[in-house]
Amino acid sequence: MVLNNSMRRPTGRPMFQFPVVSLSISHKGCRQPSKMAAAQPNAVNEDFCACLKKLKEDLQCPLCLGYFEDPVVLTCQHSFCRECAGGVLGPRRGSDEAEVVCPLCRQKTQLGPAGVECLPRNFHLAAIIETFQGAERERERLEAQQCQQQRHMHNQQDQQRQQDVQQEQLQEIQEGQQSQTGHQRRQTSQQYHQEAYNQQQQQRWQTEERREQVHYLQPQQRQQSCAQQRSLPQWQQQLQQHLQKQKHDLAMQLRQKNQQLQRMHRERQEQLQEMWQQQTEQQHMHQQQLRQMHQQQQQRQRELRQVLREQHQQRQQQFRQMRQRLREQGVRLRQQLQ
């Protein structure tokens, strides 16, 4: 098994590694970058992107310009896809040609009777490509998940704004109802005093007119007026009783109206309290849901980190085993050559 020169790395380090940006979630459910991620300079990110671009170019076949699929290696240590090597480089079966020329360095490679099928497979390069593609898929999944979280956060902010607007409207309704009830009470009291004052004025005018009539009447009429004056206290008493009765009726009506207004005010207050309780319950439930979602996200992140660690350990162990095998094969070949 032979590696391409451009894909060789020091043996004590992993082949490549994506940057891990830690995220912190605030109490309102909004994602914010942590202090460690904010402290990293932009130059490091640019260098890493350039390294990723260079690595992606190294993992592409120079013939089809795509990722290596079933890569094979020539004697010049250059790798190509098996299909590309068979369709472009490899001679057809049954022909007399038993060698191919590398399009990069123009070095010839001897082929066996099976043609391109006998070329050795670059297992290490295939494993690197598989890991790189898996990491790219994982990065795309994380980006999609972050987009969903941002969309969910915007929806939560819109709901919070709607709730604030509803609370303001409720407060305005309460203030308007209180002002309406006070205005109605003032109007009823003013109407009652105005009616009582008008009745007193009418009674005074009637008594004055009667006194004038009695003063200018003839003697017979004066006698009648005297009789009427004698009966005047009874009439005044009846009038006072009638006025008292009207005052009592008006007071009763005013009390009934006040009781009705108080009852309506109590009902409105109870309705507003019920609406407020429902809103508080909904907010409490919403907060509980947000907490549960936050806990689930933390659990998923922990599981993902554990899986990535296990995969990394497995890959390191496989790499060590393969390196040990290569060393053993090299020792055997040296022994055989000796």
Write the layout of secondary structure elements.
Layout: E1 23-25, E2 31-33, H1 35-39, H2 42-58, E3 71-73, E4 79-81, H3 82-89, E5 99-101, E6 108-110, H4 123-216, H5 219-337
Verbal overview:
Residues 143-205, 257-296 are annotated as: Disordered. It holds the Pfam family zf-RING_UBOX. InterPro entries: TRIM45/56/19-like (IPR047153), Znf-RING_euk (IPR027370), Znf_RING (IPR001841), Znf_RING/FYVE/PHD (IPR013083), Znf_RING_CS (IPR017907). This is PAX-interacting protein 1-like. The protein has 338 residues and is mainly alpha-helical. Helices cover 72% and strands 5% of the residues. Strand 3 (71-73) and strand 4 form a beta hairpin. The protein has a two-stranded antiparallel sheet with strand order 1-2. A two-stranded antiparallel ribbon has the order 3-4. The chain has a two-stranded antiparallel sheet with strand order 5-6.
Concise structural overview:
This protein is mainly α. The protein is built from five helices and six strands. InterPro entries: TRIM45/56/19-like, Znf-RING_euk, Znf_RING, Znf_RING/FYVE/PHD, Znf_RING_CS.
Please give a handful of descriptors for the protein shown.
338 residues, 72% helix, zinc ion binding, two-stranded antiparallel ribbon, 5 helices, mainly alpha, disordered N terminus, Znf_RING, ubiquitin protein ligase activity
